[in-house]
Every structure is written in structure tokens, then in C-alpha cells.
Amino acid sequence: MRSLRLSLLVVAAVAVMGGLTGCNERLDDPLEGEGILSIEKIDPATVKADITPTDPNTGLPTPLTNDEIAVVLKNRPRTEASGSLSDIFIEKSERVCTFGGGTIATGQGSGGVTIPSGGTASISTTAVTVAEKLLSGALGDTWACYVQFTGKDIAGNPVTSESARFTVNFVDE
């Protein structure tokens, strides 16, 4: 009886060890998503931000508006074996703009888009807000801005894109 228990314990231990070595460590890694999120394109790469509330040609009032950029994101599978768990849900965008060596504006945009494995999506996000135009923008200034997207794959693992650069030129149009 005692040798039977010992044999069962050895068999159970071997089974557990065999099961653990068979785990897919990428899917079990809560720090790395199955997909790689990349920024393929920003349009426009240079934003012309109108900071004057009147049309320079007619003198008529023109209300200031937020300026947007369209960002094309791609979900690249980390491995050839990546399946539906590598779909990425975009949670938010983060924007940082610098001028004269310092940070002058920051902001976050919403996500709400799922990009399938191997697929792309175009997301519109704010390049510069009306408040930033009124408080920080000066005619002729050029800001260097960076945008980055964060989300999670279907398994719940975090995914972050690299930062991509665009510029904001303050103009009178």
C-alpha cells in the first residue's frame, strides 16, 4: 500500500512537471501581449493650427476648433502561431507636445477600436485643442508632438505602440 502511494505521488509529480513545460509562456506572460502594435502613418504629419478667430481674407469671424490627426495602426502578430488572442483592443492615445526644450501640452484620447491580428485601423485623435491654441500657441511657432497608443490583447496582456512624431505649425488662415 505504501509503495502504491509513493508510486502515485511520483506519477502525479511527473504529470505536473510535464504539464508546466507544455504551457505557452507567451500567453501566460501578463506583461507582454501576443500582438505588436505599430504606428504606420500619421495624416497630416504637419498640422496647420489656425490660431486667429477671423478669416484673414474676409475679416469674418471663424470659430477656433480642435485640430485632429488620423493615425493608422497595425497589429503585427508576435509569432506565426499567434491566433485570435493576439487581437488588440485600443484603450487610449497619449499625446505630448514640446516647444523650446520643454513640454508645453499633453492630452489623452479615447480608443474603443479592436484591431484583428495582422489588421490595421485608422483612429482619429486630437493634435491640438482650442484651449492650447489660446493659451500656448503663438503665430509662427512650431511644436514637436508625439503620440502613442495603449491597449490590451484579448488575453488581457498590455500592448503599447512606439511613439510617433508629428508637428503643429501655428498659422493665420
Report on this model:
The protein has one domain: Immunoglobulin-like (Sandwich), CATH 2.60.40. The protein starts with a helix and ends with a strand. The chain has three helices and nine strands; from the N terminus they run H-H-E-E-E-E-E-E-H-E-E-E. The strands form two sheets. Strands 2, 4, 5, 7, 8 and 9 form a six-stranded mixed β-sheet that branches. A three-stranded antiparallel β-sheet has the order 1-3-6. The chain has 173 residues and is an alpha+beta fold. The protein is elongated, with a radius of gyration of 25 Å. About 15% of the residues have low confidence. The relative contact order is 0.24.
In a nutshell, what does this entry contain?
With 173 residues, the chain is α+β, with helices and mostly antiparallel strands. It is 17% helix and 48% strand.
